[in-house]
Amino acid sequence: MHIGFDISQTGSGKAGCGYFAHALVQAMIDVAPQHKYSLYPSFGDFFFDALMPVRNPYPGRSVEYGPRHLTRETARAFWTGGDTENSLGSPDVIHSNNFWSPVQIASSRLVYTFYDMGFTVDPSWTTEANRLGCFEGVFRSAAAADWVVAISEASREHYLKVFPHFPADRLRVIYPCSRFADSSALGKRPQALDGIPEGGFWLNVGTVEPRKNQRRLATAYARYLALGGKPMPLVLAGGRGWLMEDFQRHLSELGIEAQIVMTGYVSDDELIWLYRNCYANLYPSLFEGFGLPVLEGMQFGAPTVATASSSVPEAAGNAAILLDPKDIEGWAQAMLRLGGNRMERDALGAAAVEQAKRFDWKRSAASLLQLYEEAVALPKRRVMT
Q1: Which residues contact 151 (CB under 8 A, 6 or more apart)?
Q2: Which among 73, 156, 349, 381 is least surrounded, fewest beta carbons within 10 Å?
């Protein structure tokens, strides 16, 4: 089978979507090296990284790269042209992973990864340009994709709710897994945590943006301190995102600016250390396609308090305390209880490790390869003209 696979978001600054594509293609190459893999450093014009694939090559005897474009304009011209499929060598499957979707694929089976549509739930969670770009891609997939891969049952249900015409039997859940292969890794202490003892801080991982809900988390943390909670700092590990320009002022108004550690973007080694050494991993996101920081934290034994929203309960199972992400008092009380009960905290950590074992990239890759085989065996769903 000739598999064309979008790796456009798997560069050095990758986030959740990029990690999903990166780990899946690596696992497929490992478990099924007999196939031919054509990897696309650019895919469409919504997301563009001119350094792809220089910083993250994928070794394999049957691996080649598709066209590499140096500008967004040349990428757009190629991917929207009328001869794109022939120029790619007419692979059996073309798999989109960055929200953008072609519509002119006449013979190859088009597979589309659907992450989430949080931007349709609350417009204030993202920018207008990002919202329009993401929705355009998802909309095009509903019209042109032969199969859709959803990263959770919650995402699958949301897709079918928005696009009820799409055949449900061509929409399959394939779960993400942790990016970290070695669960025994110790990691490396971030410099920002010098002087903070192991097990002596609360952790939140994720880009600082409205959907990740750090504003309410900070308010709950201030309430926790006011109730006499153990004064462990709250570490926010993630880059600054959009629409949070006043966040620092929010912390100052709460009177907790000195108790907040903002690390910025952290390396994988630093993230492992944070997961392994936090008192608990707090994840109050308002909406997720899956919630990878929950699963990754569990892999390293992080006791977890997480949102009960959207897909996160699928990742967390029964191994976390799940709360309404808007219930500030509930989060403060959970922190207060957990902070004063080391036995409960340790039991959550042990349960987390067992929950994480349920997710495995080789199983996910095998499921995706099975989907490809089914897609090739069946007629195309629709040809856009």
Answers
A1: 20, 113, 114, 115, 116, 173, 174, 175, 176, 289, 290, 311
A2: 73
Helix (H, G, I), strand (E, B) or coil at 125: helix
CA–CA separation, 344 and 340 (whole Å): 9
Helices (H), 232-359: 247-254, 268-277, 292-299, 312-316, 328-339, 342-356
E strand spans, 90-133: 93-96, 109-114
Rounded to whole angstroms, the Cα distance separating 354 from 238 reads: 26
Give the range of the structural domain holding residue 366, as residue numbers without chain letter.
2-177+360-377
Its pTM stands at 0.90
For residue 230, the tally of other CB atoms under 10 A from its CB is 13
- Which residues of the chain have a pLDDT value below 50? 383
Q: How many CB atoms lie within 10 A of CB 295?
A: 25
Q: What is the model's pLDDT at position 125?
A: 79
Do residues 148 and 232 share a domain?
no
Could you tell me the two tokens for 262? Answer: 């903002």
Here the CATH number for the domain that contains residue 369 is 3.40.50.2000
Cα angle 228-234-237, degrees, rounded to a multiple of 5: 170
Residue 135's pLDDT is: 92
Cβ proximity of 109 and 94 under 8 Å = yes
Chain segment 118-140, per-residue pLDDT in tens: 888 887 778 888 888 899 999 99
Indicate whether 241 and 365 sit together in one domain: no
